[in-house]
């Protein structure tokens, strides 16, 4: 089942093959923050900022989640890295 990034009911990203792929996209986009629940004393866990959600989605016509992932990985390799 494909997954995408949503805000409320609006699909914000292309569909990707797995939920982990969308988490990776969200992390690279700066949408993931570390949070600690008040009752927890363990280390922070990653959560999506500003009520974003990752959830299963319907594919758009002619959309290929595997191709979307490959395109995103290709674009990442082309971006300059700042150290």
Description:
The chain has 83 residues and is α+β, with helices and mostly antiparallel strands. It has one domain. Helix content is 29%, strand content 24%. The strands form 2 sheets. Strands 2-1-5 form a 3-stranded antiparallel β-sheet, covered by helices on one side. The chain has a two-stranded antiparallel sheet with strand order 3-4. A hairpin with a 2-residue loop joins strand 1 (3-7) and strand 2 (10-11). The longest helix has 14 residues, at 65-78. The model has no long low-confidence stretch (mean pLDDT 88).
In a few lines, what is going on in this structure?
This protein is an alpha+beta fold and 83 residues long.
SSE layout and pairing:
Layout: E1 3-7, E2 10-11, H1 19-28, E3 32-35, E4 45-48, E5 52-56, H2 65-78
Antiparallel strand pairs: 1-2, 1-5, 3-4
Largest sheet: 3 strands, antiparallel
**Integer tally of domains:** 1
Helix content: 25-40%
How many helices in DSSP terms? 2
Overall number of strands: 5
Radius of gyration: 14 Å
- Percent of residues in β-strands: 15-25%
Give the overall shape: globular
Q: Give the SSE string.
A: EEHEEEH
**Average pLDDT number:** 88
| Low confidence ranges | none
Strands side by side in the biggest sheet: 2-1-5
Structural class: alpha+beta
């Amino acid at each position: 089942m494909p997954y995408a990034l949503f805000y409320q009911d609006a699909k914000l990203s292309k569909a990707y093959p797995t939920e982990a792929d969308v988490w990776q996209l969200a992390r690279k986009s700066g949408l993931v923050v570390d949070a600690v629940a008040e009752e927890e004393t363990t280390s922070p866990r990653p959560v999506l900022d500003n009520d974003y959600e990752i959830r299963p989605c319907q594919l758009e016509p002619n959309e290929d989640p595997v191709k979307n992932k490959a395109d995103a990985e290709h674009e990442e390799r082309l971006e300059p890295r700042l150290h």
